[in-house]
Amino acid sequence: MLLTGSRVVLRDWTPDDIEAYRRWIVPPASGTTPNGVHEWQLFDGPFYSRWTADGANRWCDGLLRRAHDADWPAVRENLAVVDAASGEFVGQASWYWEEKPGEESADGTALLPWRRLGLVVFDPAHWSGGYGTEALALWTDYLFAATDSGRLDFATWSGNVGMCRVGQKLGFTEEARFRKARKVRGELYDAVVYGVLREEWEAHRGGRGGPRP
Description:
By secondary structure, the protein is of the alpha+beta class. Helices cover 28% and strands 29% of the residues.
């Protein structure tokens, strides 16, 4: 799988990508960072549990086996994000089920496929340069083309200003704001959800569909 933009490329994981990814998720050595975490972890869900070294290494080792066997689902669940110019690994795009679809009842009632997006640019050198915006646009294009989802969304918090701006730039609507639902470094913040409907995305992108798998 290869999704190509002018700034970034989203692709199936390579061994080099995975080793770079490992360095970004294994906890930094004690005393090497001001806050004891990687800088990206100050913004990407800082209220959730962190990777342990063992957990991160097991995850990456499993990913290496999948890369070796090209063991990827038809609809990709995550892709590596690399700098289009240098080929350097800079982040990952992913999705997960917020709610899985269910069988429709006789009266037309059903759970719909509800996919929630994830995106992280690990390297601060690639922040505020349009890399994350383009990566999320490519990922959204792909998922609307490859699935029957009528909507996509992502969840963040009001302190992650960069991610909120990405959603706004791409025409996502702020669909929910749960006030004072997050506490980060002693301050209260809102939990926020940005979403986009298929027809809104097609209008925003001028009717241009994304690549199919």
